[in-house]
Amino acid sequence: MSDLLTTEEYKSIAAGLNLPTQAFIDGSFRPAMSGKTFDTINPATGEVLAKVAACGAKDVDFAVGKARDAFEDGRWSRLHPGERKAVLIRLAKLLKRNARELAVMESLDSGKTIFDCETVDVPETIHCLVWHAELIDKIYDQVSPASDDHIAMIVREPVGVVGLVLPWNFPLLMLAWKIGPALASGCSVIVKPAEETSLTALRVAELAMEAGVPAGVFNVVTGTGPEVGEPLGRHGDVDMISFTGSTETGRRFLRYASESNLKEVTLEMGGKNPAVVLDDAENLDRVAAHVVNGAFWNMGENCSASSRLIVQKGIKDELQKRILAHVREWPMGDPLDPVNRVGALVSKAHFDKVCTYLGKGSNVLMGGKAKDGFVEPTVLDITDRDAVQVREEIFGPVLSVLTVESVEEAIELANDTEYGLAASIFTSNLKRAIRGARAIRAGTVTVNSFGEGDNSTPFGGFKQSGFGGRDNGIQAHDQYTRIKTIWIDLSDDEDEAVD
Ligand SMILES: NC(=O)C1=CN([C@@H]2O[C@H](COP(=O)(O)OP(=O)(O)OC[C@H]3O[C@@H](n4cnc5c(N)ncnc54)[C@H](O)[C@@H]3O)[C@@H](O)[C@H]2O)C=CC1
Ligand code: BAL
């Protein structure tokens, strides 16, 4: 906190920013071929921040061609992994040097608090790039068991030209989760940022050139889902898509792939994540702090947000009291004021959507008010297990509290969702913790805490939350590499029986 600036200082940085507005293709900024632009808006004020290139299918095709040329001539894909590592570490250093500018740009474009941008989004973006860069010259290929007269090598190759389709909730961090392993593996990338938040991806692409990533390897094509995302998903020369966003749009990418070149597809999608608190949980104050963080961090605009609190009856009142006390420690307001923990929702459209869930058919324990892009952290006591707030991903600061009698009922309710991204379970009983963690069908389960893990641990969902590979961890590199088997014949010519 001591390193943070004052609101006035952040506003002065914001006023001096040089916002990137054009697509970044083949090493330089370019307008959309159509000349069209769209407004990117500061959701905290409603002001237009910049006019960004509204690209289309022709821009996508051009970018894919440049990415393919770069991939095939090996200017990046065939470098020694240690050389790619050195460039990516240089990029991480440049991000660090420009951290404050990136944090302010991210906050302005997304409504996220400057506190989070400064303390989480930007530092974790840098750490993620360093982690994958450091890893890449330590992954070994394999030699399989074979007879004396053969060698069978199992080697990884970069998958080729990849499309990275990003959401708006963590514009920098999701960019890093995908470009980290993709670039380290040697792929050429076409990044398609969410249209709400294009700015920081463009700035990172510019810094990547400065760090030494060759032209054509790191491209950013800005525009809407139908105009840029779909042509990318359908392009015959794109080898793979890695997508993060809604389950509905994820499904579309499977369709695009099946109707075009059967490109590989990895999908990281929605969640309706349970925080299960059993009646033997210790330190309810600490549990409450985790539940509040899980539900309201990043305004609940988080695919792994704990949006369903499932609590055993015996401790419900006490836990609820402590939760409400912790929520009061989350001030809401101007994202550029570093005391605030709750900023603006990303867009007017999203704000309107989240407002439809406030209070409807439920007992509002706290919050429930919304104005001009800001939604108060809201806690709802809900008895109807089919209420929309219990079933649907809200992606806003709304926590539904559901009360259960038994451990079995808690686990059954935790699994009563089409999603399976993340979950947490709070208990002091080791067996219940481990059995519960095994029984909950989710890609990440945390015990006695809320968290998504680390660069080193794979992240992704079960059921309709995930498809294909994983982000993060060594496993993320499986998305961006293909396995090839190479057999080498060592037999003597006279042993050959081929006649
Ligand atoms: N899992 C996650 O991290 C995220 C989940 N969501 C969920 O999705 C809901 C809607 O948010 P959206 O921004 O509309 O998410 P979305 O899934 O539509 O957008 C994600 C990305 O897909 C692109 N896209 C959208 N429509 C497309 C299409 N027809 N073809 C190809 N690409 C397309 C977007 O431009 C963006 O880059 C949110 O309320 C939230 O529930 C949204 C963002 C992130
Ligand atoms: N929680 C990080 C991944 C996401 O929300 O998309």
TrEMBL record:
Its EC number is 1.2.1.5. It holds the Pfam family Aldedh. InterPro entries: Ald_DH/histidinol_DH, Ald_DH_C, Ald_DH_CS_CYS, Ald_DH_CS_GLU, Ald_DH_N, Aldehyde_DH_dom. Keywords: Oxidoreductase. It is an enzyme of class 1 (oxidoreductase). GO terms for molecular function: aldehyde dehydrogenase [NAD(P)+] activity. The active site is at 268. Residues 33-486 form the Aldehyde dehydrogenase domain. Belongs to the aldehyde dehydrogenase family. PANTHER family: ALDEHYDE DEHYDROGENASE-RELATED (PTHR11699). This is Aldehyde dehydrogenase PuuC. It comes from Albidovulum aquaemixtae.
